[in-house]
């Protein structure tokens, strides 16, 4: 059994995870997030890397924290920059989608769902009939079919009309704001590829944040911008804090330079929830004492190596989150698809821990090693779910 440890342990005990299995291909559609670790799970020091393309100041990889939007309606007649890989004309179509959502007073979560859907269906291009390349009569930004009752060909190729029809269907879906994006989009579109929308969520969030000054950082149910997500709320970008409590130990501090996550001081028995929708890739006990296996069904100590009972989840964007030191076996298993806010387990003190808390890590590129870890405080701020 490999052990998640820290640089103060022997080379044998240190977390290098050379035996970690590759993530199964069947899970790849969900692999889009980062990773998290606890107070006892430490690793090699690496510089903070750019989280998202709209969050870096430049070559030094430092992170710029943005606001939570303004109440100014997006003007679809304005000039828009290209946002890779989309041209300014494609971003203009995204602006129309967002503007219609604002006019209809659709919560900000809906704008991200709608933009991501159009990215999948048309690459944000107002498509006419594709002839032999299209075996249906699908048209427009959302590839809506006149034969299925979406409207006339002229109507569904009008971006304002098409966006309005999308939102009108979306709001009929129960609890659409809290559903995983790909589920909400699929219930509107009834696509032959129901999981295809998930991979577009990070870029759709980036586009909405860019055009609205941070609209993805308000609560998912908010129709007005400007007020950031509060603790326990789901953000418009689909993220929420995994547990409530103060940050008792930070990311790679001078005192703990190999601490690859943050320690959230939640009490024993407090619920730990998934920070975003994704797929569980690890759910197990990880603990040893002087190289010998150690039970996770008891409190650990600073002498014990490992995360104890812990979970890794991979999210859209190849982000990975880690949740360590649970007090009992996790409630989810490898391969489970979870949604934001789903209970993963309960706070405890298993593994390398001196008291109850949640050690939380965020990683990029689905890299579960210390090289993939980034500061969870900065990362979660960017996702609209501030930890403090």
TrEMBL record:
Segments traversing the membrane:
30-52
The domain of life for this entry's organism is Bacteria
Q: Where do the M23ase beta-sheet core domain residues begin and end?
A: 258-366
Coiled-coil parts of chain: none
Provide this UniProt record's keywords sorted from A to Z: Membrane, Transmembrane, Transmembrane helix
Q: Which PANTHER family match?
A: MUREIN HYDROLASE ACTIVATOR ENVC (PTHR21666:SF270), PEPTIDASE-RELATED (PTHR21666)
Protein name, as recorded: M23ase beta-sheet core domain-containing protein
């Amino acid at each position: 059994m490999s052990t998640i440890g820290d640089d103060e342990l022997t080379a044998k005990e240190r977390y290098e995870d050379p035996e970690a299995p590759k993530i199964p291909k069947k899970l790849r559609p969900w692999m889009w997030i980062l990773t998290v670790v606890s107070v006892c799970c430490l690793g090699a020091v690496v510089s903070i890397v750019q989280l998202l393309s709209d969050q870096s100041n430049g070559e030094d990889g430092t992170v710029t924290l943005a606001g939570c939007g303004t109440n100014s309606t997006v003007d679809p007649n304005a000039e828009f920059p290209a946002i890779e890989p989309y041209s300014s004309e494609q971003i203009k179509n995204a602006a129309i989608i967002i503007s219609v959502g604002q006019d209809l007073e659709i919560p900000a979560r809906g704008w991200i769902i709608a933009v991501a859907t159009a990215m999948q269906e048309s690459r944000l291009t107002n498509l006419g009939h594709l002839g032999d390349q299209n075996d249906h009569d699908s048209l427009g930004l959302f590839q809506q079919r006149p034969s299925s009752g979406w409207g006339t060909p002229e109507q569904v190729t009008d971006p304002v009309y098409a966006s309005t029809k999308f939102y009108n269907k979306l709001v009929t879906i129960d609890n659409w704001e809290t559903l995983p994006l790909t589920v909400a989009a699929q219930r509107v579109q009834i696509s032959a590829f129901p999981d295809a929308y998930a991979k577009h969520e990070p870029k759709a969030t980036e586009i909405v944040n860019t055009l609205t000054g941070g609209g993805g950082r308000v609560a998912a149910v908010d129709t007005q911008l400007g007020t950031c997500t509060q603790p326990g709320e789901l953000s418009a970008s689909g993220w929420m804090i995994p547990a409530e409590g103060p940050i008792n130990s930070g990311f790679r501090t001078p005192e703990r330079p190999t601490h690859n996550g943050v320690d959230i001081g939640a009490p024993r028995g407090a619920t730990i929830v998934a920070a975003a929708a994704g797929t569980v890739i690890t759910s197990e006990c990880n603990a040893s004492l002087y190289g010998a296996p150690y039970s996770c069904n008891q409190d650990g100590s600073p002498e014990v190596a490992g995360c104890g009972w812990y979970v890794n989840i991979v999210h859209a964007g190849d982000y990975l989150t880690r949740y360590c030191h649970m007090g009992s076996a996790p409630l989810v298993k490898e391969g489970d698809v979870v949604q934001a806010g789903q209970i993963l387990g309960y706070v405890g003190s298993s593994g390398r821990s001196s008291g109850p808390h949640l050690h939380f890590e965020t990683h990029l590129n689905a890299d579960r090693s210390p090289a993939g870890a980034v500061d969870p405080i900065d990362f979660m701020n960017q996702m609209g779910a501030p930890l403090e």
